[in-house]
Amino acid sequence: MGCVFVCLCSHWLIGTLVSYGDMPLEIAYGIYSLMVLSLALYYGFFCFFISYAKQKWGTSYYMTAPALMVFLEWIRGYNPVGFPWNNLGYSLYNQTVLIQIADITSVYGLTYWIILTNCALYEIFFEKIHQKYNYNPLIAVLCFFLLFMGYGVYRTNEKTQFKPVTIAVLQGNIGIDKKWDPEFRDRIIDIYKDLTEAAADPDVDLIVWPEASLPVKLKNNYKLQNAIFDLAHETRKYLLIGSVDYDPKTGNSYNAAFLISPERKITNTYYKMRLVPFGEYVPWSRIFFFIDKITDAYGDFYPGTNPAVMSIDNKFRASIFICYETVFPALLRKFAANGAQVLINITNDAWFGLTDAPYQHFSFLTFRAIENRVPIARSANTGISGFIDSSGHILEMTEIATKTLAKKTLFLDNRISFYCKYGDIFVYCCVGLLLYYYIRFKYHSRKSKSIN
Length: 452
Fold this sequence. Notes:
Shape: globular
Structural class: alpha/beta
CATH superfamily of the largest domain: Carbon-nitrogen hydrolase
CATH architecture of the largest domain: 4-Layer Sandwich
Distance between the termini: 42 Å
CATH topology of the largest domain: Nitrilase/N-carbamoyl-D-aminoacid amidohydrolase
Number of domains: 2
Strand content: 15-25%
Low-confidence stretches: none
Mean pLDDT: 89
Strand order of the largest sheet: 5-4-3-2-1-12
Number of strands: 12
Largest sheet: 6 strands, mixed
Order of helices and strands: HHHHHHHEHHEHEEEHEEHEHHEEEEHH
Number of helices: 16
Oligomer: single chain
């Protein structure tokens, strides 16, 4: 069942590896199968453990299953190939009131409730205790639901917004087949120049280009660099631009974002910290040494180490996260904890084609906004671009596979969330709950042995 679940959530990866990763079909299926099997192991262990705990510890499923699933989803985010894309809580992304609890528990609190609900239904319909239904898990589900909804109503009705900022996001819709074509390079620059000029209204504070929107290294191409500087100066706007950067001292390449001021300066730089395995680097390269022999489509990037916070014309502070970093709540928490008032996501989802993936990718942002109580702006090469407020409301979504731009006034939020201050306390509580059941089992085992 674990394999089926993973395949249903990530079936689009095969097409991505073949069409955009330039891999032979057989190799793509091989890598995809390894990924599916490795992720299915989490669900296999989940089923084994809760059955073992029920038999040995005497615990019902609803006691251990929710806490264990939370722990497994959390630990998967720290595995280099863990791919924490399909956490169960994300399925509730459009239930805005219910998911406000994420500013305490992160997405894991919703995962806990989903598993608890399923365990309650199982207890009611498939198990009886002394010929009577066990309604305890159902009562627990209803209590959690009322708690989450009550908290959500309170949070969504708070009057905490202040200081508007206006951001424009660009969507050039450059296909992967043209993005790195030298003959199409000037056309790409013209597309983004035209979009920038169209977005440069007087009230706009920042104009955002997508991930790797420049087809060359910005710092290594002085002609292009001067053209971008001129554009920022002429429009009198701050530009945030995705590009590749190269450090000649170390020989390292980075997936980067540059903040360019109207004064013709690069005022800040962010290097992507969580890279895509087999896309931007090869994990465990000694094992997967053959990858570079079958395709040259993957990047050879190094991760950044600084969760930068950038000042935008002394009006507000923003942090940038790039593409896949969307699925790491602990990483984005660092940005907010360092003082970011707005989070900006730049991405190139052209790799996914016309599949479910761009919609899945965008939906995760509702949780990142709620967790940190910050609004989010997103610029995606082929879509979906858009805006989300600090309560997780989707304010605007662009159409996929279209050239467009979007502008929105976002309101900064003066709330500091529990999750932003204290991190994954809820996960630690779940681990503590599992330890409690284990210690209780050991205590009763020793007690029964001493009596005998």
